[in-house]
Amino acid sequence: MTELVYALVQAGHNLGAVLVVASPAVALGLQGRVPGLERRLAWTLLAAWGLQAASGAGFAAASLGFKGQLPEVTGVALVALGVKLAATAGSLLLAAGLLRARRLQGARPRTAAWAVCLGLALAALLAAAPLRWYL
Q1: What is the pTM of this model?
Q2: Most exposed of 39, 74, 89, 112 (fewest Cβ within 10 Å)?
Q3: How far is it, in rounded angstroms, from Cα 135 to Cα 85?
């Protein structure tokens, strides 16, 4: 049962990881050529980061439930976790900003916002490797 729970949490986390990278990558690739798509991608990005946050918390909850304690996160793993949390918070704010703004004035601010979202997604993915290695 333990392995099933961890596998389901990991599957959700992996799906979220694909979406947090794909959404800004598609937005940058199409650069406003498909009307209405940016808004849908911003909603997708917001939901994907929510899934990342929920599944990340799911790892902690599973450890607490099955092992009676949270994993000890120190050193490199703690830094990696901090990067992932910062990327999640920043991306949630940016995605909400993209939705709230309806239309950022001009292509340059929209492109910059999507580029930062993509950079944060890649930072979170890169931080995931040492986090898994050390935990």
Answers
A1: 0.89
A2: 74
A3: 16
